[in-house]
Amino acid sequence: MPHEPQPQSPDELDAEAVRTWSSLALAALGRAREDIDAINVYPVADADTGTNLYLTAESADRALDDAFAQVTEGTAAASLAHAVRAWAHGALVGARGNSGTILAQLLRGVADVLGEPGATGTGAAGTGPGGPGERSSGALLAQALTRAAEEAYAAVSHPVEGTMLTVAGAAARAGEAAGAAAGTAADVARAAYDGARAALAETPGQLAALGRAGVVDAGGCGLVAVLGALWQALSGQEPAAEPVRGRAVPVPQTSDPCEQEEDGPAYEVIYLLEASDAAVGELRERLDGLGDSLVVVGGDGLWNVHVHVDDPGAAVEAGVVAGRPYRIRITHFGDERRRGRGERAQRAVVAVVPGEGLAGLCGEAGATAVLVRSGEVPAVPELLDAIRRAHAREVVLLPGGAELRAAAAAAAEQARAEGVRVAVIPTRSAVQGLAALAVHDPDGSFDEDVVAMTAAAGATRYGELAVAERQSFTSAGICQAGDVLGLIDGDVAVIGSGLAETAEAVLERMLGSGGELVTLVLGPEVPDAVAERLEAYVQHGHLAVDTVTYRGGRYSAPLLIGVE
Questions:
Q1: Residues 416, 421, 425, CA angle at the centre, nearest 5°?
Q2: Strand partners for 479
Q3: What's the confidence (pLDDT) of residue 358?
Q4: pTM for the full model?
Q5: Of residues 365 and 490, which shows the higher confidence score?
Q6: 553: left (phi over 0), alpha (psi -120 to 50) or beta
Q7: C-alpha dihedral sign at 447, 449, 452, 457
């Protein structure tokens, strides 16, 4: 159940105040979501800033509720440090887009101060519970807002004024002034809110893209809503005015559709990363050379990486070099920029794929990819988020495995309730998804497109090679640990000792009933020589059959085979 905000004393900055702030901020962003989306023109006019901020705040609020629920089961009350750390962590793992990633770092900055050992959030200046000299709640909050702005600026590779960062900096300076004047936490919050609103109103004069469109910065508008919620949580008073809004102005269009596309990279890549501080420093340099809008937030071994690039595979590979990337999301800006012109894409494809290389391949084909480890099942919220990110009236969902059908069906049902027409094609392997993508026709009728994609997937037999982890009974006999298992349409058909030999046996069986095209998807540890051997094997024994080979990348199976 959603948390019911509780009134706070203006001097009381505790765990319950943070929880109330979170609930009010989520509600405020929910109310302003569409308005903020409508004025989103920078850095990419993709009309999703309000949505990204809301989803980030939703993830943070959910983590905070979970933290309170865990404490409730025990005997101790939730501490301020416990609450702000849980809140910031929830924002980090659920951050969406450029604005959501910056919001996550702002909350981390707040947590770095309020979560310090011994931090207290009560008492007037100089008269806290520990006696004279201890920081007052107002001074503590002012310091937290300043740290938040500093960390947000540091997280962005090339900070630009007239953006969310400018608004955060102005809020911090106003809050510091109020704190220095012995103001209460509510006084500091009100000063920060007013400072942010004033800074937001000036953003069109600081950034040319905003001035041309006649709007204020969308991310800054969202931050004003969050700061208004902070003041409301501490004072019990609703903000006197809604966040300053600009007018929604479509991006100017020309007669040439190609000229309507803004200059800049074609893809947005976001992933969580487990890596050391040193490795992240090197990652920043590498990604900075690949694209723009680079934001890396987090710390203590867990990071959220956001970048706009033309080569999504290289961006993911940079993460692999640095550590362990996961929850990788790749979005093509073609549909996003259409959204920025006030349009909603008619149709999009969302594909679940087990491998970074496959995710990049789907992204290049214009699909929204959901990356999972081989055998992993994504949660319903993750699939629903991918459908929302596709931002289309119609979505074709390719689950890529029988075990994913229930989650795909549940996500599709929720998306339909939001007005999106969704069809789930029961693909049982990534190679069936590739076959469906190959015949996808976004300009044809939805029903005909779904039928054609379903037929292409159904006409593709799929095979997979895996290594047995233990002795086991299979449909092809008893296997020992380390044996290579050749699966056809989900059943073990061949047990062998070597990858290439077993793959040849699988191919022979699959091609026995005919075929025109063989698709090979190689895992990260499989050498190119194996692909060359299999291509030669197919060419020698089946002259009329073509072969295409892809690299599945990290997390993919040793070998996937498709026969169409």
A1: 100
A2: 472
A3: 84
A4: 0.65
A5: 490
A6: left
A7: negative
